[in-house]
Amino acid sequence: MAIGSAIEWTESTWNPVTGCTKVSPGCAHCYAERFAKRLQAMGQRNYARGFELTVHEHVVELPLRWRRPQRIFVNSMSDLFHEEVPLSFIERVFDVMRRASWHVFQVLTKRAARMRELSERLDWPANVWAGVSVETERYLFRLDELRAVPAAVRFVSFEPLLGPVDRPDLNGIDWVIVGGESGPGARPIREEWVLSLRDQCLAEGIPFFFKQWGGRNKRRSGRLLEGRTWDEIPLFPVGAS
Question: Which of 129, 177, 126, 197 lies closest to 7, judged by CA?
């Protein structure tokens, strides 16, 4: 919930909601679930209920106190559009993001349909990016839902990438993140899957970010793809909204 994050494509995390439930194969080895149980064992009060979905009123306005502009991943330990998160609470989160206009907020969800449904009732400021996770071709329908969301920047995270995704329709998508699964039981990722998406992004002029190869020891596996890192991020200045 703090300034500073080990997630390569963001700078900080903010978790007004913690806990979640599994909705698709990408959730099988959820890092957030493992981390939440560890924090529960350590006595961290926000994880007293482990990975049960919990809203945290006391941290809703936290970004307003962070004066340095930065990219903030919203709910790295949950999903803002989980069906058990009330619309009234989501509206409060959006109000804070609108008021904290010097930050960029990155909202990533697997509940793309609910995000699209509620987007008509939310005032979506320019500093709030909308993203969806897609782990296999079966879940490309989330991109169609995303395209209907009136966000200034729309992005897709192919992580964990669990199979080949052959030339997805990236029309209306401003950023692509790709990564392999990490931790116990990590399922393999193939270089050709990554290169296919990288090459499509290059051809279409879409910023491409390769997060990791993953595996049980993700640091050992590293982030190099064909001898270099790929850290492209949309040119949207923090605080520009």
Answer: 177
How far from the centroid of its chain's Cα atoms is residue 139's Cα?
15
| Amino acid residing at 33 | E
Q: Looking at the DSSP assignment, which residues form a beta bridge with residue 196?
A: none
State the average pLDDT over residues 33-59: 96
Alpha helices in the chain (DSSP H): 31-41, 87-99, 112-119, 141-147, 191-204, 218-221
Contacts of 74 (CB under 8 A, 6+ apart): 14, 16, 80, 93, 97, 105, 106, 107, 108
Rounded Cα distance, 62 and 70, in Å: 13
- Average pLDDT, stretch 85-89? 98
Of residues 173, 161, 104, 103, the one with CA closest to residue 136: 161
What are the structure tokens assigned to 190, written together?
């193939």
Average pLDDT over residues 22-49: 96
- Does residue 241 register a pLDDT over 80? no
Q: Domains of the chain, with CATH numbers?
A: 12-16+59-221 (3.80.30.30)
Torsion, Cα of 19, 23, 28, 34 (10° steps): 0
Evaluate whether 138 touches 163 at the Cβ level (below 8 Å): no
Q: Name residue, tokens 């990219």.
A: 71
User: Phi and psi dihedrals of 129, rounded to 5?
Assistant: -90, 145
The contacts of residue 115 (CB under 8 Å, 6+ apart) are: 81, 107, 109, 130, 132, 145, 146, 149
Q: What is the pTM of this model?
A: 0.95
- State how far the Cα of 199 lies from the Cα of 124, in Å rounded to an integer: 31
Residue owning tokens 């919930």: 1
